[in-house]
Write a structure and sequence with these properties.
Layout (H helix, E strand, L loop, with lengths): L5 E5 L5 H10 L3 E5 L10 E4 L4 H10 L3 H9 L4 E4 L1 H6 E5 L11 E6 L9 E6 L13 E6 L3 E5 L4 E5 L8 H4 L3 E6 L2 E4 L10 H14 L1
Bound molecules: glutamine (GLN).
The site of glutamine (GLN) has 11 residues, from helix 4.
Length: 213
Amino acid sequence: MTARPTVGVLALQGDVREHVAALTAAGARAVLVRRTTELEDVDALVLPGGESTTIEKLLRAFGMFAPVQGAVAAGMPALGSCAGMILLADRVLDATADQRTLGGLDITVRRNAFGRQVDSFEEDLHAPALGAGPGADPLHAVFIRAPWVEETGPDVEVLARTVAGTDADEHEAAGRIVAVRQGRLLATAFHPEIGHDPRVHAVFVDMVRDAQA
Ligand SMILES: NC(=O)CC[C@H](N)C(=O)O
């Protein structure tokens, strides 16, 4: 029997409902996390897409910044998509003046990086570690004012890169790192919660199960 872990979705701002649906499809019990005490009831946490500076401000306003940072540092598995990837990154380029992150992932992300070319685009990605290897359908990835990863530390696995880039500037946007894993942290620059494809969430739920084993 496979365990059905309880995964919290940080529900301060962003596309919370989509993550709840994807987690449920991937075999987890999804619950909303809106206050610090609710962190105690979850095996893992999803940081949704939205606006990283807004989520950071709300985390501080509700006294959740240090507790969430502490939970991640203590080994709670976490999945961040888009704004969530920014929140998990140790370093951010093109950040707002006072922007801070929770950190945990030894990566440097550039905010709104593709936005210099075009705000949003979709692309089919090949990513064996995310269930989209040879013989499987590619992962249809939706990018919305997405960051890209500019640098990765030695313990970071690169799981996916952009292929063709965008029309406006194919070259700049091609070959960019858009999915990474380090230990119990998984992050994507795109939105795996959009599009009814639960493969990325399934990989995450497996990471949560491994963390419990
Ligand atoms: N779709 C998204 O999550 C966009 C992220 C946003 N550009 C940020 O900086 O937080």
